[in-house]
Amino acid sequence: MNNRPVSATLAANLAALASQAQSGNAAFDSAASEAERLAATAGRPQSEGWIAAQQALSAAIAARRQTATALGDIDALAASALQTQRGIAPNDFAAIKNAQGVVGSLDRRQAERIDAIQKRLGI
Q1: Would the N or C end of the chain have less CB density within 10 A of its end CB?
Q2: Which residues contact 113 (CB under 8 A, 6 or more apart)?
Q3: What per-residue string of b and e applies to 75-92 under the rule 16 or more CB within 10 Å gives b?
Q4: pLDDT tens sequence across 61-99
Q5: Which domain CATH number covers 48?
Q6: How many helices (H) and strands (E) does the chain have?
Q7: Which among 17, 4, 2 is positioned nearest to 98, based on CA atoms?
């Protein structure tokens, strides 16, 4: 079995993508906190407060882009390795799965916060 260490290029790419996701998560947290604050006092649908909360929600959704893109790029690295190498070495596969887990966890938490804000606003 191929037990070589994780490819240096792959490790660097995964680290960069994880960093991108963490940076995106910080931006998302700030935007989502503002949306949550506004949603808590939004008032009835179509009121000024509700519209402001919905706009803040839109900003939070947009702030998810970095994390979602990083997750997609990690998946693309795996797909590319499968196509070009006809397989993934075990340690490369483990590194990819780990990165998918970390970034995927951020993505899921973000999605849950968005869902909660949408429910609060009745959308």
Answers
A1: N
A2: 32, 36, 60
A3: eebbeebeeeeeebbebb
A4: 999 999 999 999 999 999 988 888 888 889 999 999 999
A5: 1.10.132
A6: 4, 0
A7: 17
